[in-house]
Write a structure and sequence with these properties.
18 helices, globular, 30% helix, six-stranded antiparallel β-sheet
Length: 473
């Protein structure tokens, strides 16, 4: 999961600073690296490095990124290690023009594509599947001068999740895969057209939201105009009933449910649905499905806050902040290693003893993936004097890996894949635990066209598990 942001200035003003602010608003989507590429219609200027947006880009760097077209990226690694080579955008220079690509998502067939390209003489400088897309596009552009046709031919080879921004000479192109796994939207103000992973970044720049990019749509922005192309591709070609086992629920778009549960900012709207309202609904449904006698409802910040508000409102149990977050520590789930995640938990949260001591506490969180973070937080609350700890989770049990852009690569990492609910309760050391039901989640979101693979083990595309796990990390 990453964040991408693009700007096209039809007044031909420099856009680097606006991209910087857009990426800052999307920092929650990736904290390992950041990059910006800009173009004056002919020449590309770019800079990328590991670290947060504010660490990577100083004023002198932004001043040297000239151009009225630009794209940016914040990185959260699922394929490829934590190095500057794997940061984006990728820039490819060729005889027919310069190309920059920023990608959010994961391909399940990247290994096969990489090997095929290497056999034809292509040399890779990174270990990510995003560069595979760039190299494929270069190859297709050698066959046709029609860039949209070349893009369509490239997309036909991709299996998996991808929202893309492509900067090609004097055009900015936005693409959302046929299943719409990852969000992407368009906005504008009096001088610029924007494309963003989430509309919260548009709000930051005081831009007007126009619409979401549709699944299977290619948007070209050129000469200040927006042109839409339909990616006419049969998604059933990527479907393997042996792997999926549930064709009836995966016939159309399958947007990642985790966007609503965890990744997106609560002030974002995805495909017309408010993330804040979804999380409030989840909390209310949790309270109905798993009632409990308690004194305090407390969120595990920040992602658990809106769930806890809904739980408190429905259950009539008072809401208090029993855990205070250090605002200078980022999101623990998307850190790349377990050691880093464990250290971040200790740095990130501090218990409020006066709230927790001698209380029956309901802790509300968005999800449990590995369980390590939850266990440490429960221990922290116990040490602060809580009499009872009850855990309520706004996502059903995660039992299968994600191959579309979330870093949970093996079943053995997932606490719910091989333990019963009672075993999880004992393992985490709580009096009770309650997950929202799958039906409750779907009701809270208000749409059925969701990717639920990590909850059901039924994947919306063909997944060759052995080849996926060969990917370099």
């Amino acid at each position: 999961m990453c964040g991408i942001f693009g700007v096209y200035s039809y007044e031909k003003l420099n856009v680097a600073k606006r991209i910087y602010y857009g990426l800052f608003a999307l920092q929650h989507r990736g904290q390992e690296g950041a990059g910006i590429a800009t173009s004056d219609g002919k020449n590309i200027h770019y800079y990328k490095n590991v670290g947060l947006v504010t660490d990577v880009f100083k004023s002198e760097i932004l001043q040297n990124l000239f151009g009225y077209i630009g794209i940016g990226h914040v990185r959260y690694s699922t394929t490829g290690g934590k190095s500057v080579e794997n940061c984006q955008p990728f820039v490819v220079k060729s005889s027919f023009g310069n190309i920059a690509i920023a990608h959010n998502g994961d391909l399940v067939n990247s290994n096969e594509l990489r090997k095929e390209l290497e056999s034809k003489g292509h040399i890779f400088v990174s270990s990510t599947d995003s560069e595979v897309i760039a190299q494929l596009l270069v190859r297709e552009l050698l066959k046709t001068s029609d860039k949209i046709e070349a893009i369509k031919n490239t997309l036909k080879k991709l299996v998996g999740a991808y929202s893309l921004l492509i900067m090609f000479n004097d055009s900015l192109i936005a693409i959302r895969d046929p299943r719409g796994f990852k969000p992407l939207c368009i906005g504008r103000d009096e001088n610029n057209i924007y494309v963003s992973s989430e509309d919260c970044a548009l709000t930051t720049l005081d831009a007007e939201f126009i619409r979401d990019v549709k699944p299977g749509e290619i948007i070209e922005i050129k000469n200040g105009e927006i042109t839409s192309y339909e990616f006419d591709y049969d998604i059933s070609k990527n479907y393997d009933p042996v792997c999926v086992n549930a064709p009836s629920i995966y016939e159309g778009a399958t947007t990642c449910m985790f966007e609503y549960v965890y990744f997106a900012r609560p002030d974002s709207t995805i495909d017309g649905i408010s993330v804040y309202k979804v999380r409030k609904n989840i909390g209310k449904i949790l309270a109905k499905e798993h009632p409990v006698d308690a004194d305090v409802v407390s969120p595990i910040p920040d992602s658990g806050v809106t769930f806890a508000l809904g739980f408190s409102e429905e259950s009539k149990i008072p809401y208090y902040e029993g855990l205070i977050k250090n605002r200078y520590v980022g999101r623990t789930f998307i850190l790349p290693s377990q050691n880093e995640r464990e250290l971040a938990v200790r740095l990130k949260l501090s218990p409020v003893k006066s709230v927790l001591e001698d209380k029956r506490v309901v802790l509300v969180d968005d999800s449990i993936v590995r369980g390590t973070t939850s266990r440490r937080i429960v221990n922290m609350v116990r040490k602060a004097g809580a009499k009872e700890v009850h855990l309520r989770i706004g996502c059903p049990k995660i039992i299968s890996p994600c191959y579309y852009g979330i870093d949970m690569a093996t079943k053995k990492e997932l606490i719910a894949s091989n333990k019963t609910e009672e075993e999880i309760r004992k393992d985490l050391g709580v009096e009770s635990i309650g997950y929202i039901s799958l039906e409750g989640l779907i009701k809270a979101i208000g749409r059925k066209d969701l990717c639920l693979a990590c909850l059901t083990g039924k994947y919306p595309t063909d997944v060759n598990f052995e080849k996926v796990l060969e990917r370099k990390h």
